[in-house]
Amino acid sequence: MATLLVQVARDQPTDQAGVLVNPAVTRGSTVLFPTVDAMQRNGQRRYDHEMIYGAMGTPIQHQLETAIAAIEGARHTQIVSSGLAACTTPLLAFLSKNGHCLIPDSVYGPTRRFANTVLRRFGVETTYYPPTIDAAGLHAAMRPNTQIVFTESPGSHTFEVQDIRMIADVAHEHGARVMLDNTWGIGVFQPFRHGVDISIQALTKYPSGHSDTIVGAVSVADEQDWHVLRDTCIQIGQLAGPDDCWLTLRGLRTMGARLEKQSCAAIDIALWLAERPEVSRVLHPALPSCPGHALWERDFTGASALFGVVFKPEYGVADMTAMIDSLTMFGLGASWGGYESLVLPTTHGITRSCPAPADDGPALRLHIGLENPNDLIADLSAGLDVLSRRTMPQD
Ligand SMILES: *Cc1c(COP(=O)(O)O)cnc(C)c1O
């Protein structure tokens, strides 16, 4: 993967001319053609990354599309304006009026909001299923009008790993497409090998890697699906700006090194946290104690540096808040995948249709950046002292 990330979608020197290592970013709306005939011939080539009009994407967008398709093992990729647009655009493309969509209860919050507002308004019904559903349960949840089984693995904030192969088998048996939010699994989960039809990523996270751009990608395995997706993107005007694509393509080149370093540090810190008396559970699929570990081991070749921590129920939200406020190495903010460490409280603001275990204490999510892990552990250790000083657990 690291070699692919360095080599994919680069310009090559010719006999006549050298090239810059990174492609130039070109900006534009109007594309000029020499003749009417040339203009019309180009207009028919909307599916093969031709330059027709700026709203259909610029060369740097198409270069990024080639790179993401190679990383995901996809037939084609469409770059869109954000990770959320990568979730919503295929839902608009592949669902229709009176259709039905199955979405895991552990889904990224804004995807749920889109299903509950826009999709509902357009006559599409959504059912939320437990992310760890078994084959019998999924068969029972499928309806004759189920068009998409949405998956997200591991789940947002709660990190359940889904059995994507089983889900794909069942969905396909019922004639539905499988869509995956593969943002956590970028490069370490190969969606199309497991039967996924549509894989999306928030390139905002590790691919751009520097917390300074918002971009998304939608990838498909099938040529007909590509036409449906591409037509929809053109019809609704979905694309990403050339500067954002350029930043993302540049970020991708170092993603192998960043991901490896951040992933190792995250596992070390997760293991350290799991030993702490204040901690009830660490939600990290690479830890054998995590319920999704066996599926993660079967299907993934690595892990992101994003995981959850659930405290013991004797601690209150106010105790955890005091801990978070005391941290100096962890930025407090949304998103993740940059070079810097982040913390986010996750106890409130997570909507679940299926009830969570009642005995959980407050929870937070950590993203581990490229700082020295010892500095991060020292900061967390001081923070946990703040937490335990506030509430001495009862014997
Ligand atoms: C961040 C994120 C998104 C949305 O990406 P944006 O670029 O911030 O819109 C979608 N899905 C998951 C799992 C994410 O973490």
UniProtKB/TrEMBL annotation:
Name the Enzyme Commission number(s) assigned to this protein. 4.4.1.8
InterPro entries, alphabetized? Cys/Met-Metab_PyrdxlP-dep_enz, Cys_b_lyase_bac, PyrdxlP-dep_Trfase, PyrdxlP-dep_Trfase_major, PyrdxlP-dep_Trfase_small
Give the GO molecular function terms. Answer: cysteine-S-conjugate beta-lyase activity; pyridoxal phosphate binding
Name the keywords, alphabetized.
Lyase, Pyridoxal phosphate
Q: What class of enzyme is it?
A: lyase
Q: Which NCBIfam families match?
A: cysta_beta_ly_B (TIGR01324)
The entry assigns this protein to a family as follows: Belongs to the trans-sulfuration enzymes family.
What is the official name of this protein in its record?
Cystathionine beta-lyase
Q: Which gene encodes it?
A: metC
